[in-house]
Amino acid sequence: MRHVTGLAKTSCVLAFFFCLVAACTEDKSIGGVTLTSSAAIELYPVANQTGTVSFYASSNWKATCTADWFVFTPSKGSAGENTITLTTISGNRTKATRSGQLMITSGGSQKSVTVVQSGKYALFMQDETTQGPEGGELTLFFVSNLEENDKLQVGYHEMDWIGWADQSRMTRSEWKGSLPKLYLQPNTSTEIRTASYVLMMGTPDGEWLGLDTCYVHQLCNDDDYESTDYSADGTVTLLQRATMGRGINVVMMGDGFADRDIANGTYMQVMLKTLENMFSEEPVRSLRDYFTVYAVTAVSKNSGVRVGGSISRSTVFSTVPSLTDSNISCDEEKIKEYMRKVSGVNPQNTQSIVILNCHSHNGVTYWYTDYSHNPLHYSLALCPVIDSLESETFRQVLTHEAIGHGLGKLGDEYSYESQGRVTDEAASKLNSMHDYGWLTNVDSSSDPSAVAWSWFIGNAWFQNEAIGIYEGGYTYIAGIFRPTEESMMNSNRSPFNAPSRYAIYKKVMELGEGRTDVSYDEFVDFDAQHKPERWDYSTTRSQASWQQWRPAPPRVKCLDM
């Protein structure tokens, strides 16, 4: 307030009025932190739920919290209007509401925001159950504190071997601590099969949140057939020869295919379908002529592969898909031995793909460096014939692994519930990968002018992809950012986003033409003529069971050829 001189008397009433105004009007230039949003946030009892805190800080500020079930970003900043985003990293399985404090400190003062996670729950009595190969009825029991009028449903995939025994009992009011009975058909195959069921709570805005998952495994019967004819083993078949550039070599193989699978044409049918799926997405769909593709026949002793804890199988590459995650173990040296059967192929510049003769939901890619940690173009992608040979999931996961990871050296754009904020070590490793031209679709920077795909942000040509900076990726919920809400490297259900297509295009030009000078403008001109046929980059990530499974992140290993 300005001081005025020359007045003989100051009115007590006027002085009181000005004091009252001063008390009711906060001066932001003096205070430390002024909240401009609610001092309490309530979040649903699942992971990946977000909330925001808005505030004004008079000087530099920092934030801390008292809970380990949510993370927030940013953790510090400068004076002015600011917003902090909070994200839950785990579901609330305590069966009670829980809370934590977010403290914001600036200018010697502190403000607290109470963060509450709802205690509503619906939990299965067991995380998984294993049933015999003979089939029969099964009941899944659960406990819940949801009221009768709360929305509750079960999420699941339709499968031909398991279903509801009585469709008439599907009404919510009849769920008295258990789901309707399931009926399992006898399993006459040679591999374990798995189904998943998710208890889902509905929100007032129409979203369905997965509260808990139960996995149903069914054991299999043994198949004691053994191969006797190995004459086709090691046979090399040229599936496609490059007609542009110097040729990018791809070697395909199958594991768990016995001599009868070779003789009846199953093996080659799988190889040809793999070839078709590999070139099903842009930009490789329009760059297919740069690739030379071979199939090497591998005759296994037994038909099928050993899935998790199923019966033992003797196969050429000893592949074993995990039941607990998406990983696949294998004999890498044996795979390299069969890859060398292709005359004239340099293994260090070759993409290798191994297709497993099973239907499990797994997928993993191995990247390689030399012993001086210099990156190599060689990669190994492993993928089962997921669900069936004509399955869309098989096509999507193969594309994610062989093209996204294997060729484009792209990072995963999804996050795991168990992974919170990225560690300094992991962020540093990611940044070092950028120096190789790897993982350019994920970044630890959220600066629009510095992020790896900064050229694409605001470019009208890509406006329908909504390219921006979305938190979550590289398997971490916080501290890593991706270009689009959805993409082939996230849920597998969408095309490659533009930054990923750019990375793949550059790799094809580097390997196919020996060029490392590909400009952004060159790619934009190419992309204008070869856009993906469908656009679906903004679908919100769901908590449903069929969205919880992801292929495994790529592994980096040293290569000894």
Largest sheet, spatial ordering of strands? 19-21-20-24-26-25-29
Structural class: alpha+beta
Strand runs, count: 29
- The CATH architecture name of the largest domain reads 3-Layer(aba) Sandwich
Helix content: 10-25%
What kind of sheet is the major sheet?
Answer: 7 strands, mixed
Question: Secondary structure elements and their pairing?
Answer:
Elements: H1 12-24, E1 33-35, E2 40-43, E3 50-57, E4 61-65, E5 70-73, E6 76-77, E7 80-88, E8 98-106, E9 109-117, E10 122-124, E11 128-131, E12 136-138, E13 142-144, E14 152-156, E15 162-164, E16 182-184, E17 193-202, E18 208-218, E19 236-240, E20 248-255, H2 259-263, H3 266-278, E21 291-296, E22 320-321, E23 328-329, H4 332-339, E24 351-356, E25 364-369, E26 375-384, H5 392-407, H6 424-434, E27 470-473, E28 476-482, H7 498-513, H8 520-529, H9 545-548, E29 555-558
Parallel strand pairs: 2-9, 11-18, 20-21, 20-24, 24-26, 25-29
Antiparallel strand pairs: 1-3, 3-7, 4-6, 4-8, 5-7, 8-9, 10-13, 12-16, 14-17, 15-16, 17-18, 19-21, 22-23, 25-26, 27-28
Describe this structure in words.
The chain is an alpha+beta fold. The chain folds into 4 domains: 29-117, Immunoglobulins (Immunoglobulin-like, Sandwich); 122-218, Sandwich (Immunoglobulin-like); 236-407, Collagenase (Catalytic Domain) (3-Layer(aba) Sandwich); 424-548, no CATH class. 17% of the residues lie in helices and 28% in strands. The protein has 9 helices and 29 strands. It has helices at residues 12-24, 259-263, 266-278, 332-339, 392-407, 424-434, 498-513, 520-529, 545-548; strands at 33-35, 40-43, 50-57, 61-65, 70-73, 76-77, 80-88, 98-106, 109-117, 122-124, 128-131, 136-138, 142-144, 152-156, 162-164, 182-184, 193-202, 208-218, 236-240, 248-255, 291-296, 320-321, 328-329, 351-356, 364-369, 375-384, 470-473, 476-482, 555-558. A 7-stranded mixed sheet has the order 19-21-20-24-26-25-29, sandwiched between helices. Strand 22 and strand 23 (328-329) form a beta hairpin. Helix 7 packs across helix 8 (520-529). It is flat and about 80 Å long.
